[in-house]
Inverse folding.
């Protein structure tokens, strides 16, 4: 690749991210790290699991992002009685002009581009698996016919960490399919003051399109071209192997508290997210600091603690 062209493409990722942050700052107070990780996840073609108590603006962030990036937004409110057809869609019997009965497919809310799966752990495992299959394959199958989902396609699933009664916790194998697990934190005193000023007065933010789907897809093609040195890849590998209690690289704390370590998807996530993180800093090479910076959201849901197993058995 020509040096000037590569430099221009690297700068485009950084500039587009800064434009998105500037547009979101008119609506969202704080949460810069969450927004950064969502942007990384989007460019990597992954999906994110967001954990946080109600009322912290998860829905507003996703909806605002869809408007700023000109993506089709869909929200799915998960409940115990939600069925797979409520997500994917179903065939309905209709009549054509001649009076003949025909099957017509009505698309469900999964046929969007930025999907908010609100309180995903409240739906039954059957419904959860229907969503996760669409996430993995980027297509759905209804009555033997496949329907492709429109790129870019991203699911942002939310969980309430406090109220767990009557929920269906996601199995470890399904949680592993999420690229990141993100945590949304409570705002501080100054941020609460700004929230009050923006939501209880005459303030009306102007939401405008900053980028579009074509720009996102163009940036995504750049990710795999970003070089990464062997010693940086080895660092990511050692980090993942160190989460396995039976591996020589495991620390004493890992051996004591961890039951299962991260899967190979963890290494893939570290490398891909590290590449995007480097581009967002205006660099065309991945550093060890890039890997360290995204280690928590990449690995926190892929490590199974012994205490988690014990508590689930008691419940």
């Amino acid at each position: 690749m020509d040096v000037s062209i590569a430099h221009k493409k690297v700068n485009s990722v950084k500039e587009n991210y800064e434009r998105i942050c500037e547009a979101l700052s008119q609506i969202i107070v704080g949460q810069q790290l969450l927004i950064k990780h969502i942007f990384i996840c989007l460019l990597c073609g992954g999906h994110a699991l967001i954990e946080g108590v109600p009322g912290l603006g998860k829905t507003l962030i996703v909806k605002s992002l869809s408007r700023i990036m000109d993506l089709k937004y869909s929200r799915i409110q998960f409940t115990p009685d939600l069925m797979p057809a409520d997500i994917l869609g179903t065939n309905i019997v209709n009549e054509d002009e001649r009076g003949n009965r025909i099957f017509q497919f009505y698309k469900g809310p999964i046929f969007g581009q930025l999907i908010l799966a609100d309180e995903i752990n409240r739906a039954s495992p059957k419904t959860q698996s229907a969503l996760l299959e669409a996430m993995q394959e980027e297509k759905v199958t209804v009555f033997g016919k496949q329907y492709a989902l429109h790129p870019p396609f991203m699911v942002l699933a939310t969980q309430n960490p406090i109220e767990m009664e009557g929920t269906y916790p996601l199995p470890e194998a399904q949680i592993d399919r999420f690229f990141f697990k993100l945590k949304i934190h409570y705002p501080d005193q100054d941020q609460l003051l700004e929230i009050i000023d923006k939501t209880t007065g005459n303030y009306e933010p102007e939401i405008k399109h900053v980028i579009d789907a074509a720009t996102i897809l163009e940036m995504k093609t750049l990710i795999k071209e970003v070089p990464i040195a062997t010693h940086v890849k080895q660092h990511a590998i050692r980090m993942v192997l160190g989460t396995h209690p039976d591996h020589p690289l495991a620390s004493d704390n890992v051996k004591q508290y961890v039951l299962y370590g991260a899967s190979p998807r963890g290494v893939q996530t570290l490398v891909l997210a590290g590449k995007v993180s480097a581009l967002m800093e205006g660099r065309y090479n991945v550093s060890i600091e890039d890997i360290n910076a995204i280690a928590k959201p990449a690995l926190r849901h892929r490590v199974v603690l012994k205490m988690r197993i014990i508590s689930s058995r008691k419940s």
Observations:
- The domain at 226-315 is CATH 1.10.8.80 (Helicase, Ruva Protein; domain 3).
